[in-house]
Fold this protein.
Amino acid sequence: MNARVSILILNWNGWQDTIECLESLYQINYDNYNIILIDNGSENNSLEEIRAYLEGKRPIASKYFEYTSENKPVKILEYTNKEVTSGDCREHEIAPLPSRRKIVIIRNDKNYGFAEGNNIGIRYAIKCQNPGYILLLNNDTVVKNDFLDKLVNAIDGDERIGFAGPTIYKYDINGRTDLISVAGVNLVMNRGSYRRIGSEEVDRGQYHSIARVDSLEGSCLLVRRTALERIGLLDTSYFLYWEETDLCRRGFEAGFSCIIVPTTGIWHKVSTSKPRAMVTYFKTRNRLWFVKSHASKEELLSFISYFCLFQFWATIAGYIYRGEFANLSSFLKGVLHGIILKKQLKPIAKSASR
């Protein structure tokens, strides 16, 4: 039998994207998965609309698949995050059902961010579903029907591989669906940055072999359970951005590698709904935290020289020139907090494996 995979989808006010993602998942070839939908304190009617879809009352149209009612209604097992935290586990109520006929919904009482929102689902999965792998999947994605087969097959035979991801395509750019968003990530530690492999390229088969990379995008990230139990879950200090890069780097430091499986993929809508000033703050602060946590002494000295002598001033000048004073304020605040505040990684691996 295929290894069991727990698929985690985080929803926040995005039910339209979420039901398209769910329908694509319910049509994949893989036959041993459990979907956990974590609603991160949505303030609209997301859960009502998602339940209507699961009951077969809201068909979804997509250019990537034909909707089917054959697996509806989907059996829903629902918890609050407080019930999950207290140890409630009623998985036996849906365990005998096929993967395409069931779902777990966890209702968070507020927005816990990407890291802790997913961690709540990971803790439940490890305790109640006993998976071999955890898949983090953004709600604004649509998957190819062979993506999970190929990811698991690539990672399953080598215990040293902790993480695997597919090619991620842009959802729709002027009708094109073959434009690559990212096919793996390589770090440039002495600049505190990274290179997104294949970004903006048309896929002509140039990435055709499984390859090792430094990191993978969190929009679709398959993680070996034993890796999580050794290194811990997503670091909640980050809240947004760099948390999956930090996870992959901690895995690397513990002896696990990342691979890209370019022969399959997903389509990602790449939401732009977050306020730019907020994005600027978290990306700035978290970048500094990441470098302080993972760079070697030589890399750190090189980064400090580059950032202090050039990039800091160039960034400020750019914001002033463009009149982006809210972003300037967020950048300066992010730099200050990145320097003076200490990132705290909670020891959540042990609690997750109880």
